[in-house]
Target: Ribosome production factor 2 homolog
Amino acid sequence: MLRTVKPKNARVKRALDARAPKEVEDDRTAIFVKGTHTGEVVNNVMKDLMALKRPCAISFSKKNEIRPFDTASSSTSISSLEFWSAKNDASLFVIGQTTKKRPNALTFVRMFDGRVLDMLEVGVEKSVNMNDLKTPKSTPGHKPLMHFASELFTTHPRFMQLKTMLLSFYNGEEISEICLSGLEHVISVSCAPTPPYLNTADADAAPSTSLPKVHIRTYTTRFLSSGTKVPRVELTPMGPSLDLTLWRHQEADPEMLKQAMKRPKLKKQDIESGLGKKRKNMEVDEMGDLRGRIHVGAQDLNKLQTRKMKGLKGDVDERESKRSKTE
Model:
């Protein structure tokens, strides 16, 4: 367990405040961990996935004996994940491991409040790396467009978990609008043809070995002139291209998931505009500017202090009458 750090100066206090929970969270940091045995396929896939996640990605160069799904070492592995999460302020993990029984395995782990929320293990059946495709690459840090092309991502619990896991990894910070020219790459996730038994009521009981494969493809975008306001979009393969098989999984605890999905009472637009709680006579216009209305009481202009000028001291008759009195 990490000790509780008390801020000794303003710099440490700002760093602790940055790690504190927020109503609108920052982009999530992911840690890529190598197991005791990793082959060339797993190393290249983790390298490409980390390139898509940058700059919010941390790579552990040393190998670690971590097996979160094994019963014998699951508690030790989970405690290691919780320690790394608290130390690096990270809530996502990718663990690469290659064994004889499960070759080229990747385990995706999500954390909440310093604890493991859920896990999903997949096997890499086929991969095409970024270096194998001599095409333009996207700029690190840009938000991708996520596209899921299958009804299983909305009906089957295993594929729904994979969808939310990938969205947590690459969705980045929440934004309300995006510039079209800032959309540099697209991540397309599709499935093999859905077998008939998955459309029945016993679809949840289907074995993992019979689930269709998942295909992940990454493209860069090109916007060409089309003669209209809407440009013509062309997609160029960028890599990585992965064919995955769903293996073991661990669902989230219902109570912990309920806390993780809890949203603040304030609306997101109110938080971003700085309003917080609703204030009287304050609003945000269409341009996003904060405008307020001020009510001022009645003013007595006779007591208003003005600039003293000879021309404003009265009429000529009044000045002559004053002269006669003095003489």
User: Anything to note?
Assistant: The first strand starts at residue 30 and ends at 34. The chain has a mean pLDDT of 83.
